[in-house]
Amino acid sequence: MLGRFFGGLFATAPLAIVGGVLSDIWDPIPRAYAICMFATGAFNGPCGGPIAGGFLTMQPNLGWRWTAWITLILAVFFGIIGFLCIPETSAGKILQYKARRLRYETKNWALHSKMDENPLDAHRLVTVYLVRPFVMIVQEPILSLMTAYMSFIYGVLYLLFAAYPYSFHNERGWNIGVASLPFIAFAVGTFLGLGTIIYSTRTNFTKSFVKYGKIVPEERLPPMIVGALLLPAGLFWYGWTSSPEITWVPQVLSTVLIGWGMLVGFWQAMNYLIDVYGFYSNSAIAVNTFIRSIAGAAFPLFTYDMYSALGVPWATSVLGFLCVAFAPVPILFYVYGERIRGRSRFRPV
Questions:
Q1: 227 to each of 86, 143, 200, 234, 289, how far by Cα in Å?
Q2: Mean of the per-residue pLDDT values for the chain?
Q3: CB-CB contact of 99 with 111 (8 Å)
Q4: Can you list the domains of the chain with their CATH numbers?
Q5: What is the pTM of this model?
Q6: DSSP structural state of residue 347
Q7: Residue 176: CB atoms within 10 Å
Q8: Tell me, what DSSP letter sits at residue 346?
Q9: pLDDT of 60-103, one tens digit each?
């Protein structure tokens, strides 16, 4: 348990800062493509884990511990690549490094950057990096509602890691490795979501950007609205085709809609938050990541009991009804988002 705690503690860093990093590197239009690529990996990595883990645990000479060893090997490999290849992306920090270098090269000790005028001390560390994210989640309706919706989607994603084996292994009788293969259909759905976001960005969002000469964050939301419809449809379809008396084909196909709806809903919400908060997006994404990670950890804890008590059709339908309850969120901000943003303390200058 202690190892799991530290694994989660350190693994949260990339998810917490990725929005700010991509915002530093790319302008709004290409940033959408970058986030799409990241999103596809972020969703399909967890989908590939159960498939590999299922077959690994079936091998008597390997066992469940090798799931942890492989994770460690991959983490070290990509950690070294990241350390060697990923530079600092913050413009302010880059200028601070440049000013420091020029001071020593020119001996002109007056050279400094704007960040040097506000050095990071304990008070600033607490107020900016610890307090501000939680102030934002309380005061910002866009952030609070989007975080609630994204946390629910994230929780359902991790719930599926227990729900799929329950349905395909416990009820249909497939072995644990084969019972994880429906995640491939989920991955197909995420690639359809990737195409949806790219198409929307190349058409509606780009036209709006050219027309107004500035970002219109609400133009990120039409694909999210589509996702808000696809996700509950996929969940209802999954639940009510789960009977072992029905062929497995429609139940597996339903996961395409689930993956599609999850990806466009979750990551267009992320794009929207970055556009809305600009400079403050790191704080917004940090508290968003904190809360949705709690949901991701909590949902699998009650999955087995819920599915045992209600059965696959009604347990999955409960999730579908909750998705329907969240569906108005992107519509609300598509209609009233600009007005709400105008009152925000944390809107970009």
A1: 32, 19, 13, 10, 20
A2: 88
A3: yes
A4: 121-342 (1.20.1250.20)
A5: 0.86
A6: S
A7: 16
A8: T
A9: 777 778 888 888 898 899 889 988 988 888 888 888 888 888 88
